[in-house]
Amino acid sequence: MPNYYVFDTITKPVNVQMTNTYQNPGIIAPPENDASKVGRLFSVSGSASALVVLSLTSATISLLLSNPIGSGRTVYLSQINGSIGGSSLLSSLTGTMTMVKGGTLTSPSTLTPTNNNFGNATTSTSTTQSSTGAITGGTIVASFQLGPGTFAQQFSGSIILPPGSSLSAMVTSSSSAIGLTMTSVLNFNRWEV
């Protein structure tokens, strides 16, 4: 290996070696790009609304993502996003988002995930349910406060659901402003390999 001098001539005070040239570019894209190209990136959404009539009221939306035993696939969480909002007086609106390993939903409804590659007919092997009730059981993974508006929590595959595991998330918006209609929205984006 040659021994290059750090300091060179007066016209080139620092020696530079190009290691990432046009012929060999270093282009990096998130794994979601490849998952979407092959039809393995899915999204699902749920929402709930409530009208404040007499006192403090909440609008809760919960989603449960399950990777069944025997699915043959591993689920990688890409992002959880959503919003809390209302019809007026947004300054009186507060909220929380909680993620739970496992958990159970009360009176759940089944949701159909959308393949984010609209030209691909591949369906998800995992199941998703929604509920307007709180999550029971499980272990809290993360919890944070929300203000009016949107939120997005990126995971880029760092939360992994092997077959036989599940993840729940819940968004709750609360207000005591009479006449306010609140809405809580929650979205899961994930890929399956």
Salient structural properties:
mainly beta, five-stranded antiparallel sheet, 1 helix, globular, 193 residues, 50% strand, six-stranded antiparallel sheet, single chain
In short:
The protein has one helix at residues 31-37; strands at residues 41-51, 57-67, 75-86, 94-101, 109-111, 114-115, 127-131, 139-146, 149-161, 165-175, 181-192.
Structure report:
The chain is mainly β and 193 residues long. The chain has one domain. The chain has one helix spanning 31-37, and strands at 41-51, 57-67, 75-86, 94-101, 109-111, 114-115, 127-131, 139-146, 149-161, 165-175, 181-192. Strands 5-7-2-10-4-8 form a 6-stranded antiparallel beta sheet, with no helix packed on it. The longest helix has 7 residues, at 31-37. The model has no long low-confidence stretch (mean pLDDT 87).
Task: Break the fold down into its secondary structure elements and pairings.
Layout lengths: L30 H7 L3 E11 L5 E11 L7 E12 L7 E8 L7 E3 L2 E2 L11 E5 L7 E8 L2 E13 L3 E11 L5 E12 L1
Antiparallel strand pairs: 1-6, 1-11, 2-7, 2-10, 3-9, 3-11, 4-8, 4-10, 5-7
Shape: globular
Give helix % range: under 10%
Unreliable spans are none
Radius of gyration, CA atoms, in whole angstroms: 23 Å
State the separation between the terminal residues, measured CA to CA.
42 Å
> How many helical elements?
1
Strand order of the largest sheet: 5-7-2-10-4-8
What string, H for helix and E for strand, traces the elements in order?
Answer: HEEEEEEEEEEE
> What's the story with the biggest beta sheet?
6 strands, antiparallel
